[in-house]
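Two proteins follow. First one:
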Amino acid sequence: NGIALCLFLSPTPTFIQIVKKKSTEEYSPVPYLATLINCLVWVLYGLPMVHPHNTPVLTINCTGIIIEVVFITIFFVYCGRQKQRLVIAAVLAGETVFVAVLTVLVFTLQHTTKERSLSVGIICCVFNVMMYASPLSVMKMVIKTKSVEFMPFWLSLAAFLNAGVWTVYALIQFDPFIAVSFFINSLFIKLS
C-alpha cells in the first residue's frame, strides 16, 4: 500500500505548480479522472461482500479516491477554460452514475461472492488498464514540444514500482484480476 500511496501522491509537485501559477497550463485532467474511476471500482471489488479478504485493495483505493478528489478539485478551480470545466463535471457525473448503477446491479443480480468477484473483477481490469494508459494522453504534447515536462518522471517510476508490488500481491493471493491488469499495465508503463 505504501508504493500505491506514492503512485497516487506522485502528481503532488504538478499540483503545487498549478496552485502557484494559478493555471493548469497544458496539463490534462484525464489521468486524474481515470484514476478516480479506477479507485471507485476497486473499492467495490475490495468490499467483503464482493471479494472477501481483500482489505489492502479496499484501503488503498479509499485513500486514492480522497487524493484524486483533491487533485481534480484543484484542477477544476484553476482550469481557465469553461468548456474543460464542463467536460470534467460531465465525466465526474458519468463516473458517479456508472459506479452507482454497477453497485446496484451487482448486489441485486448476483448472489454469491464468486459471481460478484468475477463481474466486478473484469470491470476493474478494464479501468485499471485505462488508468495506466491515461498518461499516454499527453504523448502528443511530448512529441510536439519535444519536452517531457507534462509527463512527470515520478509518476512513471511510481507506476512501475506499484505494478510490480501488486503483481506479487496478486500471485500470493491467487487473484487473476489483479495479476492480469497489472501485467497489461506494465506494457503501458514501458511505453511511457
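Second one, unrelated to the first:
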Amino acid sequence: MDLGLLCTGGGMRFAELVDFAREAETAGAAAFYMAEVWRSGFVPLTAVASATSRMRLGTYVLNAYGRSPLVTGLSAIDFNEYCGGRLVLGVGGGNRLINEQWQGIPHARVLTKMAEYVTLLQRMARTRLGERIDFEGKVHRMHWEPAIDPGPTPFSIYLAAVFPDMLKVAARVADGIACGATLSAPYLREVIRPLVDLAARTAGRDPATLRWNSVAFIAVDEDRERARRAARVALCHLYAPLPHPYYEFTMREQGFTTTVDALLKLAPAGALEAAADSIPDEVIDRLVIAGTPAECFARIKDYEGVVDELLLLNAMGGDVQTSHTPLLALIRDYMK
C-alpha cells in the first residue's frame, strides 16, 4: 500500500505548500493531492509540479458542477503534460450545499451526470490528433476534435463515491474509487468493496481493474491525548458551520448515530469544545488515525490489503512546520 498526502491548502501560503510537498517527496510519499475546498485544484498542483519530480499529483476532488467536461478535460491534459504524466484526476459531484449555496447551480441528475462526465473525460484522455468525439447524453453532449495530442498514456480518473448508487456508477465507468475520510478499514473491506465488486461484475468488468484510494484524518504526536484531541476537533469541523451530508451518512452507517446527533446539535451552533467532548474514544479508535507515532504506524497498517493508496490528511494544529514534521517522519518510516 502506498501513502499519499491530501492537502486542503487552508492556512498555507503557496510557498509553504510547495515546501511541504517537496519535503513529502523527500520523505517518500507516493503522491500529493489537493482538495478543491479552500483553494482551487490545478493551480496549487502546478506550483507543486515545478518543485517535485517523482510523486503522483492529483485533484481530490474537482467539482463537476463547477466545470464543463471540456474545461476539466483540457485542464487535465495540459497539467498531465506539464507534470510529466503524473496526474491522477479525481472528480466528484459535490453535494447540494456546495453546488446550490456556494455556486448557485442546481444539484440535479447527479448519477447520470457523473456517469457521462467521467465517460467524456475518459474519451478526452484517449482521443488522439485526427480523431473525434461525438457524444449525445442525457445531461452532456460533446462534438469535439483535439488540437493537442494527449499522449499515448492516459491519466487515471477516480470518481468520488460513498453512497451506494454512486459507488455503482464508479464501478462501471471510473479507473478508481475515491473514498473520503471517516471510513474504517473493516467498513471498506466488508461493506463498500463487496458492493463495488458486485456492481463491476454486473457491468461485465473485472473488479481487479479498479484502483482504490481512501482518506484518513491523522494526528501524530508523542503526547497521545493531544493527538486524539486534535482529531476530535477535526471531526467537529466536518459539521460546522454547515454539516456535510457525506460524513453524517458514513458515521451513522458505522454505528455512531448518537455521536452524529450530538455533533449536528453542537457544532453548527459554534459549541466546538462541547462537540469535541461528545465524541467517544471508539470513534477516534475506528474512524481516524490518532496517537503516538507507533500507534499511528499500526493503524495505517490496518488499511493494507483494503486500499491501494491511503491519503493522509493532517489534523494537527499549530504552525505548518511543527505540525507536519511528525507526519513526514511517520511516512518516511512506513515507506522505507
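SUMMARY FIELD: The chain has one domain: 2-219+290-335. DSSP finds 14 helices and eleven strands in the chain.
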